[in-house]
């Protein structure tokens, strides 16, 4: 479904991604783990066209999207829940969800709204509340629900557990698993919480300083001593 080859991204003269090769197959949950500053979020944003890749290619369902504008990528049934949530804080929960549905012209708005409220019942209770007044966990639910309102086939999730209490983290990861199992949603997950991410994932990649250094199934990576030392036992 998503194929990345030789991807290089720069910030000015600084090379943030140094030739990335990776694949996300239809129906999979694929996770990318790595330390802060490794380039994980840069990869996620490059897939969506901002920043623009300088070298290499990004192919989605056989179509080269490397040079497409971000708004055109969003219309290809790809949605992103970005790092830091980036909801619209002055808008209500309902209005934020409307923004997600605008991508497909509100074609199935009532049905998709009900689906979002079924997945995250808390959002239904907060429907008329401004996004900026929600708790961190509720804002993360809203960011994911807003992405789902566009009916994506590929969902990009950037650090969904960041700064959340363990109980909320479990709830978020349970939702991701359920969407994948029941609806066949393909998920590419960037995550610092390596244990939860690799337990959830079919396959995973490890990024260090803008390079993919390891790949394998989630189970294989969980058992690798270097992964355990760096990401699961308090290492860096």
From TrEMBL:
<dbReference type="GO" id="GO:0005524">
    <property type="term" value="F:ATP binding"/>
</dbReference>
<dbReference type="InterPro" id="IPR052156">
    <property type="entry name" value="BCAA_Transport_ATP-bd_LivF"/>
</dbReference>
<keyword id="KW-0813">Transport</keyword>
<comment type="similarity">
    <text>Belongs to the ABC transporter superfamily.</text>
</comment>
<dbReference type="GO" id="GO:0016887">
    <property type="term" value="F:ATP hydrolysis activity"/>
</dbReference>
<protein>
    <submittedName>
        <fullName>ABC transporter ATP-binding protein</fullName>
    </submittedName>
</protein>
<dbReference type="GO" id="GO:0015658">
    <property type="term" value="F:branched-chain amino acid transmembrane transporter activity"/>
</dbReference>
<dbReference type="InterPro" id="IPR030660">
    <property type="entry name" value="ABC_branched_ATPase_LivF/BraG"/>
</dbReference>
<keyword id="KW-0067">ATP-binding</keyword>
<dbReference type="InterPro" id="IPR017871">
    <property type="entry name" value="ABC_transporter-like_CS"/>
</dbReference>
<keyword id="KW-0029">Amino-acid transport</keyword>
<keyword id="KW-0547">Nucleotide-binding</keyword>
<dbReference type="InterPro" id="IPR027417">
    <property type="entry name" value="P-loop_NTPase"/>
</dbReference>
<dbReference type="InterPro" id="IPR003439">
    <property type="entry name" value="ABC_transporter-like_ATP-bd"/>
</dbReference>
<feature type="domain" description="ABC transporter">
    <location>
        <begin position="2"/>
        <end position="234"/>
    </location>
</feature>
<dbReference type="GO" id="GO:0015807">
    <property type="term" value="P:L-amino acid transport"/>
</dbReference>
<dbReference type="Pfam" id="PF00005">
    <property type="entry name" value="ABC_tran"/>
</dbReference>
<dbReference type="InterPro" id="IPR003593">
    <property type="entry name" value="AAA+_ATPase"/>
</dbReference>
């Amino acid at each position: 479904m998503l194929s990345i080859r030789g991807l290089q991204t720069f910030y000015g003269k600084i090379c943030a991604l140094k030739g990335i090769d990776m694949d996300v197959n239809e129906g999979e949950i694929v996770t990318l783990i790595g330390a802060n500053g490794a380039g994980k979020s840069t990869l996620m944003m490059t897939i969506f066209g901002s920043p623009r890749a300088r070298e290499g290619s990004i192919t989605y369902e056989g179509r080269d999207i490397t040079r497409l504008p971000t708004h055109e990528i969003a219309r290809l049934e790809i949605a992103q829940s970005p790092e830091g949530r980036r909801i619209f804080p002055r808008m209500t929960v309902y209005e934020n969800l409307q923004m997600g549905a605008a991508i497909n012209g509100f074609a199935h708005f009532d049905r998709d709204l009900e689906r979002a409220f079924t997945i995250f019942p808390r959002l239904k209770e907060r429907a008329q509340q401004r996004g900026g007044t929600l708790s961190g966990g509720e804002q993360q639910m809203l960011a994911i629900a807003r992405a789902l309102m566009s009916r994506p086939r590929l969902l990009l999730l950037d650090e969904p557990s960041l700064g959340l209490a363990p109980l909320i983290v479990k709830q978020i990861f349970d939702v991701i698993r359920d969407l994948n199992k029941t609806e066949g949603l393909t998920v590419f997950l960037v995550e610092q919480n390596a244990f939860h991410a690799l337990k959830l994932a079919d396959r995973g990649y490890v990024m260090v300083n803008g390079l993919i250094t390891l790949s394998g199934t989630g189970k294989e990576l969980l058992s690798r001593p270097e992964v355990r030392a760096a990401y699961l036992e308090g290492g860096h």
